[in-house]
Write a structure and sequence with these properties.
The strands form four sheets. Strands 3-2-1-4-5-6-11 form a seven-stranded parallel beta sheet, sandwiched between helices. A two-stranded parallel ribbon has the order 7-10. Strands 8-13 form a two-stranded parallel sheet. The protein is 42% helix and 16% strand. It contains eleven helices and 13 strands. The longest helix is centred in the first third of the chain and has 21 residues, at 96-116. α2 links the parallel β2 (28-32) and β3 (55-57). The protein folds into two domains: 4-184 and 237-267, 3-Layer(aba) Sandwich (Rossmann fold); 203-234 and 270-307 and 317-345, UDP-galactose 4-epimerase, domain 1. By secondary structure, the protein is an alpha/beta fold. α1 runs parallel beside α2, α1 packs across α8 (239-254) and α9 (275-286) crosses α11 (324-344). The structure holds nicotinamide-adenine-dinucleotide (NAD) and UDP-4-deoxy-4-formamido-beta-L-arabinopyranose (WQD). Residues 9, 11-15, 32-38, 60-62, 83-87, 102, 106, 125, 127, 180, 183 line the site of nicotinamide-adenine-dinucleotide.
Length: 346
């Protein structure tokens, strides 16, 4: 019998790609999402790609009673991948309690239900933001967690602590915290991708929206950093590569191959790329020009960070394989597809 995985936030960007990979790997998926940052028709995209429509329940995981009711009904969940969270760094600075309530309450409710209903395995969506500006690059999992720059970043740090403390007393639960670097791109089918609601903050959606003419100009935030071309450096990881790592992490927990109750893995490519390099790679990969200008630095940006991926490579047997050109092409194809789709559905 197929094992069933609960994917919270499964209609979101990374959750939808992970659902596809889980279904393609023979797992059943039940998605819980309140659609606060995604659309129900993402399920159509998943179904078109895999031939399977995942089970779906719409409710807020920060609601304790609803979450309990869900677990009471769903008695055959083997593992949970917890993506559901708010993720806009700037908004979290303006409205910290919204972020603490949503991101922490939903995690606490899940952990309580895991204990109550004997669901042992949790994969948690964490972020390289926990490292701040690391002293040593590439950064590995033993680097110190630095004071968070934003309430959003703090929810990731506190979540990791909540998981650690809960596992310490439970004796039965096991978890993997995956620290993503910068997830970008879309499924090669262009049937699912990132849906930035409102004005995007992340580099790649701003590039694709500028290239297609929705935004007039991309602002490069600073060219006076201490990096080879003066712009910031990040580790841009393809979303499908990222999704595949989740399937491996779930399997590792289900098969009890984990070495500790709580494990941490960096998910990146291991390669640092500057903002100017992203723009030029996009232009070469798509043949489309990006209108940009250099402006001042963005508050809170770290200068450079990229992942030491050796632990994920050796322990998970996982490696990012998609080139940045392919990834940026998939982001562009998705942008084109999605704009046409929106026009048609108007
Ligand atoms: P997303 O916003 O596309 O997906 C999150 C989904 O969770 C959305 O569909 C939203 O509707 C849902 N959701 C939010 N709060 C909920 C709640 N209380 N109950 C039910 N559903 C809820 O975001 P994403 O980019 O797919 O990110 C997924 C996870 O990965 C998040 O935890 C995020 O913090 C983490 N992460 C993302 C990035 C990134 O750059 N995208 C980087 C590092 C970590
Ligand atoms: C990348 C680079 C910008 C937009 C954020 C969160 C982090 C994580 C991933 C969840 C930076 C530059 C951007 C623009 C630009 N999310 N840029 N012009 O800042 O690495 O990380 O998303 O956990 O927590 O902070 O990603 O895509 O916003 O920026 O020049 O219009 O692009 O300065 O150097 P970032 P990003």
């Amino acid at each position: 019998m197929k094992q069933k995985i609960l994917v919270t936030g499964g209609t979101g960007y990374i959750g939808s790609h992970t659902t596809v990979e889980l279904q393609n790997s023979g797992y059943d998926v039940v998605i819980v999402d309140n659609l606060s940052n995604s659309r129900i028709d993402v399920l159509d995209g998943i179904e078109k790609i895999t031939g399977i429509r995942p089970e779906f329940e719409q409710f807020d995981l920060a609601d304790q009673d609803m979450t309990d009711l869900f677990f009471k009904k769903q008695t055959d969940i083997s593992a949970i991948i917890h993506f559901a969270a708010f993720k806009a760094v700037g908004e979290s600075v303006e409205n910290p309690l919204k972020y603490y309530r949503n991101n922490l309450f939903s995690l606490i409710n899940l952990l309580e239900c895991m204990t109550r209903y004997s669901t042992a395995c949790l994969v948690f969506s964490s972020s390289c933001t926990v490292y701040g500006q690391p002293e040593i690059l590439p950064v590995n999992e033993n680097a110190p967690v630095q004071p968070a720059i934003s309430p959003y970043g703090n929810t990731k740090q506190v979540s990791e602590e909540i998981i650690r403390d809960t596992l310490f007393v439970s004796g039965k639960l096991r978890a993997i915290s995956l620290r993503y670097f910068n997830p970008v791109g879309a499924h090669p089918s262009s049937l699912i991708g990132e849906l930035p609601i409102g004005v995007p903050n992340n580099l790649v959606p701003v590039i694709t929206q500028t290239a297609i003419g929705i935004r007039e100009q991309l602002k490069v935030f600073g060219s006076d950093y201490n990096t080879p071309d003066g712009s910031c450096i990040r580790d841009y990881i393809d979303v499908v590569d990222l999704a595949k790592a989740h399937v491996i992490a779930v399997k590792r927990l289900l098969e009890q191959k984990n070495r500790q109750a709580l494990e941490f893995f960096n998910l990146g490519t291991g390669k640092g790329v500057s903002v100017f390099e992203v723009i030029s790679t996009f232009e070469k990969a798509t043949g489309v020009k990006v209108n940009y200008t250099v402006t001042g630095r963005r508050a809170g940006d770290v200068e450079q960070v990229w992942a030491d991926t050796r632990l994920a490579n050796s322990e998970l047997g996982w490696k990012a394989t998609t080139s940045l050109s392919e990834t940026l092409r998939s982001a562009w194809n998705w942008e084109v597809y999605y704009r046409k789709y929106l026009e048609k559905s108007r």
